[in-house]
Write a structure and sequence with these properties.
Blueprint lengths: L2 H19 L4 E2 L9 E4 L4 E3 L7 E7 L4 H16 L5 E8 L3 H11 L4 E5 L3 H5 L7 E5 L5 E6 L7 H8 L8
Parallel strand pairs: 4-5, 5-6
Antiparallel strand pairs: 1-8, 2-3, 2-6, 4-7, 7-8
């Protein structure tokens, strides 16, 4: 392959990688969010209404899900980038033993809230059938974006979309 063709192929591959890294959050066209009331690893109950006034990233995941594991560091980076702002991550694990989740979290060094959905009732209500499945909730408590599949959460485009939802004066 000559060097010009190699350069073109390299550029096209780079554009394809950038496009997949910047997968679009899809505007939500459905209705209001289903109920969410789940316990975290320490047994504390978290309700969606507890976070009213904040932007919330709800991410349905499992330790056995490769794309879920792959996107976790970018979720952690997004949380870090929006630190001090009214933003929270709720990572909802689907029906796995707490011991497995704790080992995974210690290896990944993640510090966002992990909720347990032991019978997958909440996942079914949210129609999170394919993992990872994510929803971005606005400060008004309504779903603004959804996404099925992996995304680079700390990509500028994604960070901008989420930051635009932050309450005025807190960006």
């Amino acid at each position: 392959m000559n060097s010009k063709l190699r350069c073109v192929v390299f550029c096209l591959l780079g554009l394809a990688a950038a496009a997949s890294a910047a997968a679009d959050l899809k505007p939500w066209l459905g209705g209001p969010p289903p109920a969410l009331a789940l316990k975290d690893l320490d047994g504390r109950l978290h309700r969606l209404s507890d976070y009213r006034g904040k932007v919330i990233l709800i991410n349905y995941w499992a330790t056995w899900c490769g794309p879920c594991r792959d996107e976790m560091p970018s979720i952690q980076e997004l949380k870090k980038r929006l630190e001090g702002k009214p933003f929270v991550v709720l990572a909802v694990n689907l029906d796995e033993p707490e011991s497995r989740i704790r080992i995974f979290l210690s290896q990944m060094k993640l510090d966002f809230t992990v909720l347990l959905d032991p019978e997958r009732k909440t996942a079914r209500a949210w129609e999170a059938r394919i993992l990872p499945a994510s929803f971005v909730i606005g400060p008004d408590g309504l779903i603004r974006y959804s996404l099925v599949g992996e995304i680079n959460w700390d990509h500028e485009q994604v960070v901008s979309q989420i930051a635009e939802l932050l309450p005025t004066g807190k960006r």
